[in-house]
Amino acid sequence: MSIRELADSFKRGAIDKPDYIRRMHEEHARLFEYAAFLQDTNVREIRLSDGDVIMVTRSSGLQFYVDQRDLRSIPVEMLNFGDHEPEEVGLCLDALDSMRCLLDVGGNVGWFSLECAARHPELAIHAFEPLPVTYAQLTRNLALNDARTVTPHNFGFSDQAGPVTFYYYPEGLGNTSMQNLSERESVVPAQCEVRLLDDFVRENDLRVDCIKCDVEGAELMVLKGGLATLREHRPVLFLELLRKWAAKFGYHPREVAALLAELGYECFVPHVGRLAPLSGPEAMDVTEATNFFFLHRDKHAALRDRLV
Q1: Range 86-307: architecture per CATH
Q2: Domain map of the chain by residue range?
Q3: What is the pTM assigned to this prediction?
Q4: Which of 14, 149, 166, 269 could, after both became Cys, cross-link 9 (CB 3.0–4.6 A)?
């Protein structure tokens, strides 16, 4: 019986007052269990407010609304596993020193953009999230944190511009993709917009220092739509590349590594708080890593010396 059902039973006279108090006390004891549990996580605080659950991070004080349906939202991941990719994020934040413009492609609910904005208030951040339901969460979280340096955009990127069907399931919004990755019965199609990254950069007269791209398998398409930007600006790249998701799009992550190698990029993976070189595109066949850093061998030589 839920706490609301208990309260209704008491109001109807189905249970007496002493029994109601005892049973509600048993329910409220969960609050104290959570208070103790939080001590070992990056969630410092859970706030309950008029139907909303808000989690506050310990490391940066950021606030996030929690989607009750989503089993793997970022704040829930922090609660379940203690934190979410702390090594990768720490390296990303270190790499952003002295940079001025970041493109967060696959902005999701705004976690990465907000972390970067908190650490680097001088950084102009553009966050791209094509799925309307997730975009709504992104904008709510930006407003909750008064993140004025993050500009949200309700579209994504690919190698062709136009309307595209995306697939998502409410219990796992992080797996939203232009391919039906989960093949679950609960998957929901949604019409979204994608553009070319090169067009966006040119139309907004941007000088791009860094691109983070996590788009559930479509990373190669995003890069192909931004080749002019990669050649001219040579930004630092943070990419998530999974063989199983790339296969849904008919390619292998080694193709991404090979494409970027032709443009002068070297590939690295996080290792014990530093970056370790990944030797050659063929290493993509066997690596267990899923998050990759690509640094241009000429432009980022100093950054490479500092982080590798």
Answers
A1: 3-Layer(aba) Sandwich (3.40)
A2: 1-31, 86-307
A3: 0.93
A4: 14
